[in-house]
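User: Show me a protein chain along with its predicted structure.
Assistant: Here is one chain, sequence first, then structure tokens.
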Amino acid sequence: MKAEDRSNVLRITVLILAILGVTVGHFVVGTTTHPLHIVHVFLRCLYLLIIIASAVWYGLKGGIVSALLISILFGSHVLISWAGNSMENVNQAAMIGVYLILGSVAGLLVEFQNKEREARLETERRAEREAVIQGFASLSHALNARDEYTRKHSENVAQLAVRIGRRRGIGDAELEDLRLAALVHDIGKIGVRDDILFKEDRFSPEERERMERHPEIAAEILRAIKGASRIADIVLAHHECPDGSGYPRGLRNGEIPVEAEILSVADVYCALTEERPYKKAEQPEKALEIIHRMAGRKLDPETILALEETLGEQGGSS
């Protein structure tokens, strides 16, 4: 059972036991003397605390439900224990009205406060997101100064990744994280030496090891930005493969975040279809053929299908 569920069960248990305890107290305590009457007044006030607690924990619904239940139980006590005492019955009937009013008003006030809190948190989230976007804009400018090709490639990957993400049913918040991750997924190349970054020949084992550190470098840079930890996780995993042959952690299918799977497919497709100084651009059909050969080993099959459907929407253009 989740911690939240356990907390709810505990709260409901406390409320029920408190209501039953006060109600039993009303029936057990006699009504023959003045001191006993004072005890009844005290017990009536305890009901008020229970109603307030219900409203605080469960809002308007909690306040009204507890007030109704208490009114029924207290009304039963009045009819049984105070039968024929018209003077006291008037006071008790008024108390039932107080219970109902308190449950409604306290519940409304709590819900109003919760809405104010949520609005404040939403404002803070928007400000945090704006700070993240500004931070990423700075990173993008830095990347542009280092490597113009990488910046253009990242923009293409971001556009395609968002389209694939929609095909896979990713929510709006996750799509925004995916878009930002795609824009800076190669930012770690800032930490790679120029002689390696711009090398056109095959890498030596040492050079490949240095190049394969760029997701880790990117993740370290991104985690320094408040609110970007999820984006850092996506970037860190975008070179992982379903068969465990990827880097830097060798994750397997089921361990890789879905956004990273999408980013990986978009990255490969764009890399194949973009012209580089050392290669010509592949046609979309040829690029898809190459990508299909990677399905299940290097790339996620479900995401490849989403890519194919996405490209089909616009005649195979990326």
